[in-house]
TrEMBL record:
Sequence ranges assigned to domain AMP-dependent synthetase/ligase in this UniProt record: 45-393
GO terms, molecular function: ligase activity
Name of the featured protein: Long-chain fatty acid--CoA ligase
Stored SUPFAM superfamilies: Acetyl-CoA synthetase-like (SSF56801)
Keywords linked to the UniProt accession: Ligase
Source species: Streptomyces diacarni
């Protein structure tokens, strides 16, 4: 079997992550996978695998889960510290016909408890570290069974005790039934549980499969995405079927990342926008950790032009490109565009791209007043295609309220230019009166003031636009430089500087704007 045949099979029969490792091994079992950390569930395995070895390990873990009592159609919640074994255990759960529910390790105990209650006594797969963090929860009431990946704890079952269990035949989930459940970022409250099916997961590969076809030779692919995110499913599937050696990363510290890139020299890097932003200063590293990268790719959130420009300039590859994809967990990739080295730094950061090739998502912008959406009068961005998530688990009415027939309301506002490019201005809930686009202000100011490491415009106590900023190494802001740079944004209030460590973030490193605004309003005046 070759990768194209496997891809076509997925398009017809759906993406079943329980079958994926074996399918990838049939394509090329020697494809290497390098980790930057040890696996909690299988610490003896080490950090260098092949795809064939991966398939064997997933089969072994599936046998252990079956021996622990996990059965088809059951929900298995995975909530443990960040580690590549989250993805492997999700594949193993899928292989025995269960539905893995992937919860971010960054969720607090109260939120985890609320989600367990919503699922109604699922099995919980966790670790000793998270058990301590969830100590305040009545797990015996919220979970039908608690399984830990290793070690021993009262009232739990350890997967380690089932090592060497008899292998079981894989169970294939129905094409349009739940296959994997992930969750939204939770920037506006308790996260929603997003239900993905084999069909929706498979269809979402279409635009990226064509994009990866641009790579003419096998090169190392560095992936730095939360292991619990639906995007990680797509990224791993595409890399393995394309026979690309994978560097699967957990570390985000710039110094560690630099060393990893120097040792592995990736040709493609896919990472969170805020991770890439945090790695910007590596462009000045004399060891040139980004020299080998020809393709940068990022999704989840729009990325600042300054970051793209610096990264592309640091590459020594001819024709280096930065691919930005705009989408959501509910819709997958919606639009995208490529940026080039000579122009990325001066690009309009609000231009998130054009609709993908035929067979991909359709996008429209709807204005409630019936007028043509413009920058001054933006409309609501909606997406339609068969790859839309099936539902929100336990919240069908909430899901239905976002649907307009075949169209899904993203919650973002924007407009199409006369050239057909989608400009995303803001989340509707984050719009600030008198400011056309908070995100545009952030793009411009980050470009003008190199000392800024982050800038977020939020609602003040009187609905004014308050810029909250962080500087490199938390150095004091030069207010004179700020006032000069912000002169053409008269609607902005005085800035508030905070240490970057105090920024409330989601599991994908997005700033929780509403939470940040609430903190500012509750802060004593002399601290602002």
């Amino acid at each position: 079997m070759n990768g194209s045949v496997a891809y076509q099979s997925i398009q017809k029969r759906g993406l079943h992550i329980g079958l994926l490792p074996a399918m990838a091994a049939a394509v090329n079992g020697t494809t290497p996978i390098t980790l930057d950390h040890d696996l909690d569930v299988l610490p003896q395995v080490g950090r260098r695998l092949t795809v064939s070895r991966l398939a064997e390990l997933v089969d072994e873990l599936a046998a252990r889960l079956w021996a622990a009592g996990v059965r088809p159609d059951e929900h298995l919640v995975l909530h443990k510290k960040a580690n590549a074994d989250v993805w492997m255990l999700a594949c193993a759960a899928s292989r025995v016909g269960a539905v893995p529910v992937l919860l971010s390790p960054n969720l607090d105990a109260e939120t985890v408890g609320a989600l367990l209650e919503r699922i109604d006594k699922p099995r919980l797969l966790t670790d000793e570290h998270k058990l301590d963090a969830l100590a305040e929860l009545p797990l015996a009431e919220l979970a039908g069974q608690v399984i830990i990946v290793a070690g021993e704890r009262p009232q739990t079952v350890s997967l380690a005790t089932f090592a060497g269990s008899m292998r079981v035949k894989p169970v294939v989930r129905p094409l349009d039934e739940a296959a994997v459940i992930t969750h939204t970022s939770g920037t506006t409250g308790v996260p929603k549980l997003v239900v993905h099916t084999p069909r929706t997961q498979g269809l979402r590969l279409k635009p990226q499969w064509r994009l990866l076809s641009l790579m003419r030779k096998r090169e190392n692919v560095a992936i730095h995405i939360p292991f619990v995110h639906s995007r990680n499913v797509a990224a791993m599937t595409l890399a393995l079927l394309k026979e690309m050696p994978v560097l699967l990363m957990n570390e985000s510290d710039p110094g560690t990342v630099a060393q990893l890139f120097i040792e592995n020299r990736p040709g493609l890097v896919e990472a969170l926008p805020n991770s890439l932003m945090a790695w910007e200063d590596l462009t000045d590293d004399p060891r040139k950790p980004f020299a080998s990268v020809k393709y940068f790719s990022s999704t989840f959130d729009a990325i600042h032009p300054r970051t793209m420009g610096r990264l592309l300039t640091s590459s020594e590859r001819r024709g280096a490109l930065f691919f930005q994809i705009y989408g959501q967990s509910e819709v997958g990739p919606a639009v995208g565009r490529a940026y080039f080295r000579h122009s990325a730094h001066k690009a309009n950061g609000r231009c998130v791209g054009w609709p993908m090739p035929v067979g991909s998502a359709k996008v429209r912008v709807v204005n409630r007043q019936g007028q043509r959406p413009t920058k001054e009068n933006p409309g609501h961005i909606q997406v339609s295609w068969p790859a839309l998530a099936k539902t929100y688990f336990g919240e069908q009415e909430r899901y239905d309220s976002n649907r307009d027939g075949d169209w899904w309301a993203t919650g973002d506002v924007g407009y199409f230019t006369r050239f057909g490019c989608l400009h995303m201005l803001d989340r509707e809930v984050d719009m600030v009166p008198g400011v056309a686009s908070s995100l545009e202000v952030e793009d411009v100011m980050l470009d003008r003031l190199k000392e800024l490491s982050e800038l977020v415009v939020v609602h003040g106590s009187d609905s004014e636009a308050v810029p909250v900023l962080c500087t490199h190494d938390d150095q004091p802001l030069d207010l004179d430089r700020w006032r000069a740079a912000v002169a053409d944004f008269p609607k902005l209030a005085d800035p508030v500087q905070i240490p970057e460590a105090e920024l409330p973030r989601t599991g994908t490193l997005k700033v929780r704007r509403r939470s940040l605004a609430d903190r500012l309003q509750n802060r004593p005046t002399d601290q602002a």
